[in-house]
Amino acid sequence: MKKRGKRIAAVFLAAAMTMLPVGTVYGEEIQNGAEPATDDPAARREQEREAGYKIPADTNSLEGWPEGPAVYADSAVVMDMNTGAVLYEKQADEKHYPASITKVLSVLVALENSELTDEVTFSEDSVAFMEPGDASIGMTPGEVLSMEDALYAMLLASANEVSYAVAENVGQLMGGDYSTFIEKMNEKSQELGCTNSHWMNANGLHDEQHYTSARDMAKIASAVYQYDEFRKITQTLSYTIGPTNLVKENRVFQQNHKMLWPENENYYEYCTGGKTGYTDQARTTLVTFADNGETQLVAVVLYDFGNDAYVDTRAMFDYAFDNFDKVMLTDEKTPEEIESYQDMESYVLLPSGADFSDLDKEIEITDSQSRTGTVTYTYQGQNVGSADVVVTREYVEAENEESVSVTEKETETIRIPLIVRILIGAAAALVVVFIILCSVLKYRQIKRRKARRRRRQQMRKRQEMRKRRSDRSM
């Protein structure tokens, strides 16, 4: 019952988050709560950097947790994409404008609701909203691309008109329009457990009601990374879209994520893709995937600044790869509540020096009939991994009994005390007596009226008879 209550509360929380005032979203203002003492851009940036570095990572406060690096980003997180384990976080639930990393969610919704061979037709609406300086590959109304070409344009060139067209066309495939796609973005976000996000468009152009958090973005990125098509696209360095029905030239564009380019100073050998973003209000936002051959991680930084986003991301990845050990669950003693793990490759990520016996666990049953569920392991309250499980029959029975017991107790708590029930019964009886008395009085009143009416009628008849006799005698 307690777990059911948590799930219900989470649903209401997710719905409430979409109605929070715009003031809760961080924009261009300085995050340390004070304006800088200079108008010089370089000095201002340096002050912001210093203020950002002074905000410690939240995970640094955990006992026995390795100390993470200071980063300039206002919000940051590193998450294991297979287990959901969070290895590093700094203000991970603060709301920020996401800019073009929005397209990661847009691609996820597109992959789930279309085929790569589907056609994407560009309407007037998909192009008309563009302003000078917006990222684009120069599409025109009436042009047609394949969905595959469109997704490359979204992720590599960050083309805003392509994002709009994909949303519009996939929305039509779902039986609606562009707004249908945006609704699906919000639904998918909530389905993934995002509680600090609200989406207004498919490209990330600024809107005060369009925001997310580092943790939410990591959940979204982890979900889309499971698609082979996405992994192939996101690590591609250069792509060419051939001639279309209206344009005869090739369109060639390159990957914007600097950690993928070997010749770039920000190159990171374990990087397997990512998405960049920038608006004046969001500053630099960055999603990055990394795989060292053993662990697959995603890092998200929000409200960062230019190249600092790459410096921060590298520092967080190095910290995560160097300070956590992968522990296979099948190598440890299985908790008595669990019959088996559904995936024999399930694991947790423990801080170096920690032991599996130091972990706490929480089991959620998803289907009592099949006895399937999820176990989440935590260390000092921090999620270090979850896995799908089959629980024992005894555990299911015990949980069901507890649920019934709790229900009975709740029912008892709303039972009306005896004295109150007696008073209510007496009051009800008085009401019934009053109604009967009123009915009897009413009946007698009606009966008297009828009697008076009969007497009047009889008197009139006698008067008429006397009058007729008198007339005859005359």
From TrEMBL:
Ligand binding (substrate): 275
InterPro entries: Beta-lactam/transpept-like, Peptidase_S11, Peptidase_S11_N
Record's keyword terms, sorted: Carboxypeptidase, Cell shape, Cell wall biogenesis/degradation, Hydrolase, Membrane, Peptidoglycan synthesis, Protease, Signal, Transmembrane, Transmembrane helix
Domain of life assignment: Bacteria
Active-site residues, record numbering mapped to chain: 100, 103, 158
A GO term, aspect molecular function: serine-type D-Ala-D-Ala carboxypeptidase activity
Compositional bias ranges of the Basic and acidic residues kind: 41-52
Occurrences of domain Peptidase S11 D-alanyl-D-alanine carboxypeptidase A N-terminal (ranges): 68-303
One GO term (biological process): peptidoglycan biosynthetic process
Annotated signal sequence range: 1-27
Membrane-spanning residues: 418-443
Pfam families per UniProt: Peptidase_S11
Disordered as annotated region, ranges: 32-60, 451-474
Entry similarity comment: Belongs to the peptidase S11 family.
Annotated protein name in UniProt: D-alanyl-D-alanine carboxypeptidase
Species in which this protein is naturally found: Candidatus Mediterraneibacter stercoravium
